[in-house]
Amino acid sequence: MPQPDHIIRLDLPEKPEIGEDMEKYFQVCDEKIGFVPNVLRAYGMKPNKLRAFSKLYNEVMLAESGLSKLEREMIAVVVSCANHCYYCLVAHGQAVRALSGDPQLGEMLAMNYRVADLSPRQRAMCDAAWTLTKAPMDFAEADRQGLRDVGFSDEDIFDIVDTVGFYNYTNRVAHATEMMPNPQYHGMDR
């Protein structure tokens, strides 16, 4: 199957000057997963934005939280489903497969999270992510209370909405630039 010949629909520098710190970051990515994600390569156009993006990603997705890494990846996929973001569905669907050990869960979340066998906690979290993406003005105290009722603290709720906001942002960047996922994601954790 032919692969697109672009990362994004903008001209990227052949060898961007991203600084020693980001070169090391790229090296860690390559060592850890075997490649540098195209989103990072795209942000290499603007090294300061690359630094800010990487720092925010690490805070949203890896910092201490009442949400597990899997739950944050699940949010990424549900938001990306609502937004039809191909890049994030592929990349974060793979992360869900890897973290859950379930080769179907990533696809279920990508297509329709409601068909997945989720715990009440995960279901409420995914419902919140969907509402905050599709109709954010409809999210209200009843929704926050529903999250509390399944065990989320107010700090956890903040982390949920922060993660939802982050992926709505990245989905828009990916859409506007026609960002393509690295082809390696497709075969991982199957």
UniProtKB/TrEMBL annotation:
<dbReference type="GO" id="GO:0051920">
    <property type="term" value="F:peroxiredoxin activity"/>
</dbReference>
<dbReference type="Pfam" id="PF02627">
    <property type="entry name" value="CMD"/>
</dbReference>
<dbReference type="InterPro" id="IPR003779">
    <property type="entry name" value="CMD-like"/>
</dbReference>
<feature type="domain" description="Carboxymuconolactone decarboxylase-like">
    <location>
        <begin position="50"/>
        <end position="104"/>
    </location>
</feature>
<protein>
    <recommendedName>
        <fullName>Carboxymuconolactone decarboxylase-like domain-containing protein</fullName>
    </recommendedName>
</protein>
<dbReference type="InterPro" id="IPR029032">
    <property type="entry name" value="AhpD-like"/>
</dbReference>
<dbReference type="InterPro" id="IPR010195">
    <property type="entry name" value="Uncharacterised_peroxidase-rel"/>
</dbReference>
<dbReference type="InterPro" id="IPR004675">
    <property type="entry name" value="AhpD_core"/>
</dbReference>
